[in-house]
Amino acid sequence: MTANEIPVSRHISTVIAADPRQVYEYVANPDHLRDWAAGLAAADEVRRDGDELVVQSPMGTVRVRFAEANDYGVLDHWVTLPTGEVVYNPLRVIAHPDGAEIIFTVRQLAATGGEFDADCAAVVRDLQSLREILSSR
Question: What is the CA radius of gyration of the chain?
């Protein structure tokens, strides 16, 4: 990103033919993270360390802390990168006439346009995987 570019956010969503609470509970369960979130959890192991998850990601070992369990569909999470930088990721599950809609906000921050597009593409793939898993249940 050049000095004149303004960072943007992109809201990526998909509709899942499932009850919103079912989607929320599935996503909130760290044991399922590696099944649908390849952009975050690249390895088979997700280790718990207190309130955080430690996962091997495409970026290296990261720590992930999710928002506390709630009735509002909020699955925001903070990812501590190998550099120590913490990235906040808004994630919501809301009711939709066809089931549930899951919405992930990707922020460009310091990423180049190409890096931002790659991040967004990874989120699209992850949400498609989630939809396939939960729609088949």
Answer: 15
Residue 93 belongs to a domain: yes
Number of structural domains (the chain) is 1
pTM of the model: 0.87
Q: Which two tokens stand for residue 18?
A: 């499932």
Q: Which two tokens stand for residue 110?
A: 């310091």
Task: Note whether 108 and 1 are within 8 A (CB).
Answer: yes
Q: What CA–CA distance (Å, rounded) separates 120 from 99?
A: 23
pLDDT at 106: 92
State pLDDT tens for residues 46-61.
788 888 989 887 778 8
Phi first, then psi, for residue 56 (nearest 5°) are: -90, 115
Q: For residue 33, give its domain range.
A: 9-135
- Say how many C-beta atoms besides its own lie within 10 A of residue 87's C-beta: 13
Mean pLDDT of the chain: 88
Task: Note whether residue 1 is domain-resident.
Answer: no
